[in-house]
Each structure stands twice: as structure tokens, then as C-alpha cells.
Amino acid sequence: MKLLLIVLICSLFICCTKKKEQVGEQKTKKDTTEISDVKKDSLKTTGTKKENLKPADTQIDSSFIKLTYEQIQGKYVFLKYCSVCHGEQGKGNGFNAFNLNPKPRNFTDSSYMSKINDSQLIDVISKGGRGVNKSQLMPPWKGTLRNDDIQYVVKYVRLLSEQKH
Amino acid sequence: MESIEVKIMSKNRTYFAVLSVIFLFVLAFSPMKDFFSEWKGYQHNFNKIGKDLPQKISTVDIGIKQIWVRKLDKVDRCITCHSGLKENAMMNQKEPYNTHPHIYHDLEEYGCTICHEGQGPATTYEESTGRVKYWDKPMLPSEYMEASCGKCHKEEKVPLAAVLTQGRKLIEQSNCVGCHKLPGYEKQWVPKLDGIGSKVDKTWLYNWLKDPQKYFPKTKMPNFQLTDEEAKTLTDFLMTFKTFPSNAELETLPKILAEETKTGQEKIVELGSTKFREARCISCHSINGKGGYAANDLGKVASKISAEWLYNYIKNPKKFQPDVVMPRYRLNEETLTAIVAYMESEFAENDMQKIPSVQYDPDFYKKGMALFEKYNCGGCHELNILKKQEENAPDLTFIGNKRLYEIEFGKSNIEQTVPNYIYSKLKDPHIFLQNMKMPNFSFSNEEARAITVALLGNTDEKIPEDLKIYPKQVSYYSPQGEFGKLVNDLACFGCHTMFGRGRLIATDLSLEASKTRREWIEGYFKVPYSLRPILTERMPNLFLSDAEIKVIVDYMEKVFIADSIERDITIDDAKIEKGKGLYFEKYSCQSCHQIGMKGGYVGPPLDKTSTRLKPGWIFYWLKNPQSFVPETIEPNNDLSDEDAEAITAFLLSLMQEK
Questions:
Q1: For residue B622, is it within any domain?
Q2: Which pairs with CB-CB distance under 8 Å and at least 24 residues apart come from B122-126?
């Protein structure tokens, strides 16, 4: 009877001390404003060695830049509708740019792009150049593209203006 | 006696007292653990951040929150920590406080895990990622997110899911269904191998099997990474198949070529060169990389096939390759011979490796057959002598369900997730295990990622039928009579679509007679000038006779026409002036169209619109271009009827102003 009781008490203590540690850990992390990187890294692998493992993309392609969903959709819309004048990298040197005067905007010109905010970009894309008192050679796209598409394109244009050249 | 009893009783009481206190502490752990939970910290932080923002946002009550999606039978507690998903003001914060990116679907209606996967009912970060024991579907990395769109959306082109659309297109083009079972994709046309022994040069075949991309970089045939020995055995095996389909025989070449003097030969080659250019073979065939990509490259074709075969093939392609989309040009014997002579002299250079000379192996046929079956050549290339081959590669119908523990990663040190497995396998099929049968398709990183996204959407997750969207019905339109015979002979469906059937490399012809004038179509068959500068593939000159053209245009006027597109537009000077103003000032069509050699060069020049297009069509096109050609990049300007009529009047008046 006594032995049983002692064994019971000891086992309870062992279990409880483990739980206490966990609670203690969470208590110290309660006030962090970001998820700790340590935690994130340890979760990337399941049951395999943690050193020497890289995500497949960097192994095969070291220039992989992770685009957000909005930027990816914007990229496809841009390449289809905009790149013929503005160029595939947004430098204003598309196939049709040769025939236009003034030339299409160069999105990699950061001194210009930093003065324009996103809602102005949405305006010029939707209403065309004429709708914002600029060259009327830029057509209005609000009848052709959805609102979603225009927002995504703006996100991609911002990405282009931040690319290093 | 009594004192002993009392002693024992008091001892038991102390034990009982101590144990009770211990139990009380033990029982208190659960509420204490809950009191210090992770998610509470995040919610408190959210409220703190929210207070500091200039805009007002509603604070979140402390407590577990969940979205119960009844129709999908899922419970998602993600919003417990991610409190700011619907607050636009939190756009620039760190995770988990920031806003959800703008998407089409409503978060409350669909929940989170239907797209992101992971463990929905979890309330800690570690468990919610799903990378824990006994949870089969860990969270999808963001670059593969569109795979979840593929669970419900089974169409070819999924709006707002561009990577998924591209992946599906690539799967169709690469003909994965030749070996793998994949519902929803059609098998592409691939040349039959009957008669290949009478067609190609042996050395060429050996080089081709070793490295297809060396001869034709954009070929759809992947590289099977054969050893020298395997390639030689396979070459010997294939060269034994000398009978063409339906026992067709090769005609001998006309004697003109053999008997001419040197100057005579040069004249023939020159004639061939002119006719080759007139026929515009380069619209579909590329020559050393330049030209169209609808067919194969001709830059080194004389090293591949004999002159005799080339002559016979151009004379009647379907005799040697049934169902090929090459049209039968109407060429007389002199022209055809000249073209063959030109091609034989011009496209002959090709430095090929010699076949290694090994001892003659009497078992080569059996070994060749075994190789043919091992690599499942019959999955794409038909060879009549062999039975129809079953797909002998893994079934990909539900590859999205693949569990991590089912995958063999071999000795590679790539991070072990299901998307990484598929991606790495597409980039390099031999990366995990040696001696694999899957060939190397030389996909770029972006292409491999798109295909992975498309494949991951193939799951058997239970989704209610009313949420699924299926691809459009396949069209079986098949024209009959004289017109039908011409369409078959000229392979019009190879580039045009009519009533939903065909390939869309050129225009859709379903409304052609409502769109273009009869005289223009007749003239176009004779001189197919290029309308749009951007395109590489152009209409070839098929040298049709007047009678044949009449058959075609008569049929078009009766069938490819819609009464609703007819419109009478009165043209007067006021309308023309108004239209001119709208064209140049308001809508500046000149940014993409030329008039009088001035303007942009994206769409066709509009100088001669009145000789080509019909008024009603111009009007309805201007009102809504995408209703005729969904892929066009002409903007829809929401024109009013008057504006559209004015611009139409202006365009029709252009020919008169000379």
C-alpha cells in the first residue's frame, strides 16, 4: 500500500514537472511580436537531419524570388496586356514603343515611381492617360480588366520598380 | 488495540491530506496551461498594435475563434491567432497580424484550410502547420497555393489562377497522358512510326534518340538519356519497320532532277527557292530556329530523310502520316520537284555522331522490343505492329493525395515535402533513384513549378458537386460534302477553330462571312499577306484553284454567318467627322493601329478596312472585342452605340480619301 502510494506520487511529479516546463516556455514567449525563427526552422524538416537541407528551389535555382499571389497574377496580366508597349521588364521599351511619342512609362525609374502612390496607378490604368491628363496613347482598361486584375497589376508594377538593374 | 487503530487512521488521514493537495495541483495544470496559451498572446498583441494605429479598428475579444464551413465539413481555427485578416488597416504588419491578400473568394464562406491545407482545428503554431505526426496534409508553400484552386476548378483556363492555367497547358502540350493516366487531358498528335525504316537515315535516328534537342531544340520529344548501346539497339529495331500505313508505296522521283546539266540544276534549285518562299512553309516550320513552331524544324531536314520520301510526302502528307495537320499543297510536278531539289541542297548540313561500331547482335529485335516497351515509346508513338500500349507509369489521377511516407527520396538532400518531390522529379527525373524510365523534358523552373501546381490539384478530397466547375464540352463539329473534304485535305483545323473544334493558332472562322467580305477572302487565298506584324505563324499559300476557293467561300457564306451581327450604318459627313475625333483624340486608337503609315503596330493597319471588314462586324467588335476573341488585348472602351457607329463610319470612309 505504501509502496504503491510512493510510486504514484513519484510518477505524478515526473509528469507534472514536464508540463510545468512547457507552460514556462509559453509564458516567456507570450509577449513576442513575431514567431521565433528557431521554431520555424525546426518545423521545416520532419524526422530528418536538420543540417544540410535546403528547399528544392534554392538547390536548383539560386535566383528564385518568392512572389506573392497578387504579384504572380499581376505578372501574367502585365505580360499579356501591357508588355507590348511597356516592355517585358517594364522599361518602356516594348515592341510597340518605337511608334509612340511620348514613349511609354519606364517603371524602373525609381525617382518617378516613388512620387506616385498606388491609387494614382489604379486611376491611370482604369481611366487611361486621358482620364488623368496625361498622354491619351495609354488606353483605359476598366472595361477590359477586372478590378482584381488592375490591383494585381499595380502590385507587380511596384515589384518591377524595385528590381535591381 | 484502539491506539494502534487510531495511529493507522491518522496515518491514512495524513496520506489522504497530502495526496489531496497534490491532486489539486495536478488538476490545476490544465486550466493553467490554457491560461498561458500561445494564441492569447497573439490576440493581446493584436489589440496593442491596433490601439497604436491612426485608424480605428475593432478590438478582438480574447477567446478561441473558428470558421465552421459546413459544406466542406471543415473547422478552421486560424482566425484565433490571425485576427487581422479582414482589417485593411493592418496591411503592413508582420504575420500573424496582417491582412489577407486580396482574393476573389470570401474567407467566411470557404474558411482557410481548403486553400492553405494544414491542420485547421489546431490552436498552436506548430500543430497548425500540419507538419506533425499523423496529419497527412501539411500547409502548402505559397508558390504552390493555386493547386487548391484546381480542386474545384477543372476548366482549362482558370481566372485569377494564372500559374494553374499555365501548368495545365504545359501538361497538355507535353503529352504526359502518353504514359501517365490523367483524366481531363487529350492525347496530342504524335507521328506514327510505321515505315520509319524507309523514311529516315540510320545515323540520324541514332543521333535523334541520343539527344532530340540537338536536332530540334523546341521538340516535344523529351530526352530519355539512353546509353550508346540502348540507342543503337533501338535504332536497329526501328529501322526494321519499312512498311508505311495502308501499305503505301513511295513513287520514284521524276527524272528531271537526274538528267539536267549543272546550269539546269541551278535553275531548278532557284525555282524551288522562290516557290518555297511563296508557299510560306516558314509559317509553321522553323528553319534553324526562325519561323513558326506549329511543326518541326527544317533546317537540317535533308540529313534526316531521303529526297524520294520528301517528294512523296509533300505531294500527299496524309498518305504516309494519317491525321497529320500538314495541308496538301496544290503543286504541279515541276514545282514540287523544284522545291524538293531546293530543300535537298539547302538543308543538308548536320554534323552527326557516327553510330559506334559494335559486334552484330542477333537478338537486337527482341532487345529493341524490350526497350521500346520499357520506355513506353508506344504511349506516344503508335506502331501498328504492336498492341496498343497501356500507360505503364504511375497513375496521377490523385497525385495530390500522395503522403510523405509513401515517397522515396533516395540519397538526395532536398527538403522533404510533397511539392518539392514533384518539382524535383520534373526538373531531373533521375534525381532520387537511378535507372528511372521517365525522360527529361528540360522544363524551366517556372514551367516545373506550374506543372507541380496543376498536378497537386488532383485530389479525391470530398467537395460538393455544386462547387465544382467542369471544362466545356468537346466539340465534334465535322463539316461534310465538298467543303468537308477540302477541310480534311488542307488540315484547316490545324490552325483555325470552327464552332469549337480545332486549334487556335490563327483566327476562329465561325463568323467569318459576317466579318470579312467575299472578295477579300478570295484574294487572301491567292496572296495571304500578313495582317498583324506580331505573329510568327502566318497563313501559307496553298495554291488553291478558283473552283476550290469558290467551294470554300460559298460554304462560309451559308454557314459561318450570324444574322445578329448585321447592321445598317448610314454614313454621312457628320458621323465621319465625329468618328475621326473619337479615333484620334478620345480613344487614340492610333497607339496600336496604323493609318497612312502612322501609328502603333500592334493591331492590323486600318487603311483598307472597307475592302476587308463588314460594317456590322466592325460595330459589334468595337462594342465588345472580347466577345469575339476572348484573348484579344484590344481594350473594351464601353462605347455607346452612337460612338461605335461614328468610328465605324470613319473607318469605312478611309478608302475613299486617297
A1: yes
A2: B122/B77, B123/B37, B123/B38, B123/B39, B123/B64, B123/B77, B123/B80, B123/B81, B124/B37, B124/B38, B124/B39, B125/A35, B125/A39, B125/B38, B125/B81, B126/A39, B126/A43
Total domains in the fold of chain B: 5
**DSSP letter, residue B613:** B
Confirm if A141 and B587 have CB atoms less than 8 A apart.
no
In the chain, the amino acid numbered B146 is E
C-alpha cell at A100: 509612340
- Looking up cell 515526473 gives A14
B126 in contact with A, Cβ within 8 Å: yes
C-alpha B637: how far from its chain's center?
30
CB B492 within 8 A of CB B560: no
* Cell numbers at B160, concatenated: 485569377
Tell me if B535 is assigned to some domain.
Answer: yes
Inside any domain, residue B527: yes
Q: A117 CA to chain B: closest CA distance, Å?
A: 15
Among B588, B595, B568, B585, which residue's Cα sits nearest to residue B634? B588
Strand positions, DSSP E, B275-397: 286-287, 290-291
- Round to whole Å and give the CA distance between B374 and B371: 5
Shortest alpha-carbon distance between residue B413 and chain A (Å): 6
Q: What is the dihedral of CA A21, B95, B166, B289, to 10 degrees?
A: -100
ipTM of the complex: 0.85
Name the residue range of residue B462's domain.
162-181+392-467
B298 and B235 housed in the same domain: yes
Query: pLDDT, tens digit, for every residue of A68-107?
Result: 889 999 999 999 999 999 999 999 999 899 888 889 999 9
Please tell me whether residue B108 adopts helix, strand or coil conformation: helix
pLDDT digits (tens, 9 = 90+) for A25-48: 444 433 333 333 333 433 343 333
Residues 399-428 of B with CB under 8 A from A: 404, 413-416, 420, 423-424, 427-428
User: Please, what are the domains in chain A?
Assistant: 72-161 (1.10.760.10)
For B215, left (φ over 0), alpha (ψ -120 to 50), or beta?
Answer: alpha
- The predicted model scores a pTM of 0.85
* B657: CB partners within 8 A, 6+ apart: none
Return the percent helix, strand and coil in chain A, to nearest 5: 60, 0, 40
If contacts are CB pairs under 8 Å, which of residues 45-104 in chain A contact chain B?
A: 45-46, 48, 52-57, 59-61, 64, 66-70, 72-73, 75-77, 80-81, 84-85, 95-96, 98-100
What nine digits make up the cell of B76? Answer: 478552421
Out of B440, B467, B494, a domain closes at B467
CATH number of the domain bearing residue B638: 1.10.760.10
For residues B359 and B351, give the distance between their C-alpha atoms in angstroms, rounded to a whole number.
24
pLDDT tens for B602-615 read: 888 898 899 999 99
